[in-house]
């Protein structure tokens, strides 16, 4: 078996050399993007916790999760196909097709979600009121545009612009102050205004560099249909549980407990910034034809080199971080610690999808994401009723333990440990 060493750059020259490697360059700016987004989110929620009531914060997390569900349902897998087929097709047609389809879809899904809100989440039934419904749908469309344009920057290996896009999101922090009179909807609206400015910047930049004709390329849709639909189903199973949980907790335990859960979950996921970024870059580089074997080793080594100190810091400093949001949030310390420890298992899972996507084995991703979907939501529901919000942590840890066992079995069956077998 060949090996790869992860050397730490000792000088500015070596750092520039590392950033010349497309895997590390894209990962570097994706990490910067997520760090800036998380840092912004940290101050955003800290300020929101001080300006708004705990109940308002909890309901706002359910609103933002509802928005996430609408975006997730409306992507139709084109965010994955954009990355996978962007280097191989007419870039203008790929970008335009993905943008048009997902924008129209977000509008339709937003309407459907509001019509069924009494069934999905009775606590959010106020969204049926005309003014709230209109704002919710408008923000959903804007958010969808920002998501696709951000994916386009990553696909172009221009993640530095993705970083700039995320800097616009920092504006949601000052927007919180004048919108306090709106209560929970003020928190939601502050996010929407920031997404509006980010999407305008993205569209202007991509119009100049890639082009935009607002037409759907039917040939591209046909060619990517199997890949898009497979990843759509897979990503639904992957994303829905974490988006549903704040809504579930609001309805089972109330807004205050949902707020404590959301803050702990947001902090706990800080340690997954680097694994997620390297996972995305691994997919991008594999799609550009770069060697999968070498990049998997580099990504794996970098992930755990970051995770070990990051998890230790979060485990021992979690109480201090939670206290910054208010004394009530310290109740979620045990949950935060369990979530941070589970990241060692989640990192293995994060490498599975890009490896299989590059190899065009979407079916295996669907199966493992379905298992995660059923395990996580089922265990969370049972454990929340029995243990409260810390039950989410127990469910998270057990789910990833079982998934890692499955991944090791698949890796052994497909001869991953003989890296020569890991072909595109």
From TrEMBL:
The keyword Membrane applies. Keywords: Cell membrane, Membrane, Transmembrane, Transmembrane helix. The chain crosses the membrane at residues 28-48, 57-74, 94-120, 132-155, 175-207, 228-249, 261-284, 296-316, 370-388, 394-411. It is a multi-pass membrane protein. It holds the Pfam family Polysacc_synt. It is found in: Cell membrane. It comes from the Bacteria. Its main location: membrane. GO terms for cellular component: plasma membrane. This is Membrane protein. It comes from Pelotomaculum thermopropionicum (strain DSM 13744 / JCM 10971 / SI).
